Amino acid sequence: EVQLVESGGGLVQPGGSLRISCEASGFTFSSYWMSWVRQAPGKGLEWVANIRQDGNEKYYLDSVKGRFTISRDNSRNSLYLQMNSLRADDTAVYFCARDPDYSTSDYWGQGTLVTVSS
Amino acid sequence: QSVLTQPPSTSGTPGQRVTISCSGGRSNIGANYVYWYQQFPGTAPKLLIYKNNQRPSGVPDRFSGSTSGTSASLAISGLRSEDEADYYCAAWDDRLYSRLFGGGTKVTVL
Q: Which end of chain B has a smaller Cβ tally under 10 Å, C or N?
């Protein structure tokens, strides 16, 4: 059974940093692209970033370029999102997702809430 | 504002057929596959349709997807109360090098 478990969310002040993680199980992690997708309270889905199997190809939403960094550790079956210079509009539930290819996700975690507020 | 445009809401009575539209452009729907997701409040999205019109294992055949040019549609036939949820279309955009989601459509079963 595919399982994706996010962790590391919490309350952070504007301008602060946070690193969220996703631990994968139930599939061969190193064979899949992986994504982060977020959902602000009461709003729709917004793709944030994704990363190729070997970590050497990454894509980002324009509004997070230069502030967020996606990475992975295939030896630990883990995906990460380092978020710097956080803004109030980054407040959202952040979902980790498995990608059969760069264009889509087929399994999602339950999400971790990131709140940016003073 | 989403680049993929969906109606905010639609409704139907049990047994009816409802359709949800998703309008995009030549660099996204016009060039790449469309995917549809179903989401219940407080839960993770679930893949409903992939590669325009394919259903993952376990998705009822009441759900169907189609595309035409720069638009896509999701149809739900034989509407049931458990279909009340939010539905999102998605596609990769070749110009933005980003994955786009529609704004979502809330389906209400009357």
A: N
B96–A62 CB contact, under 8 Å: yes
Which of B56, B96, B99 has its CB closest to that of A103? B99
Per-residue pLDDT tens digits for B60-100: 999 999 999 999 999 999 999 999 999 999 999 999 999 99
Q: How far is A15 from chain B (nearest CA, A)?
A: 25
Closest to A99 in 3D by CA, of A4, A1, A10? A4
A104–B101: do the CB atoms touch at under 8 Å? no
What would the two tokens of residue B100 be?
């786009």
pLDDT tens string B3-25: 899 999 999 999 999 999 999 99
Q: Minimal CA–CA distance to B95: which of B14, B31, B21, B4?
A: B31
Q: Are A116 and A20 in contact (CB under 8 A)?
A: no
Chain B residue with minimum CA distance to A94: B44
Q: Is A103 on the interface with B (CB under 8 A)?
A: yes
From first to last of its 118 residues, what are the pLDDT tens digits of chain A? Answer: 999 999 999 999 999 999 999 999 999 999 999 999 999 999 999 999 999 999 999 999 999 999 999 999 999 999 999 999 999 999 999 999 999 988 899 999 999 999 999 9
If we measure between CA atoms, which residue out of B48, B45, B87, B10 comes closest to residue A109? B45
- Our CA-based measurement puts residue B44 at a distance from the nearest CA of chain A, in whole angstroms, of 5
Question: How many residue contacts between A and B have a Cβ separation below 8 Å?
Answer: 61
Contacts of A111 in chain B (CB under 8 A): 44
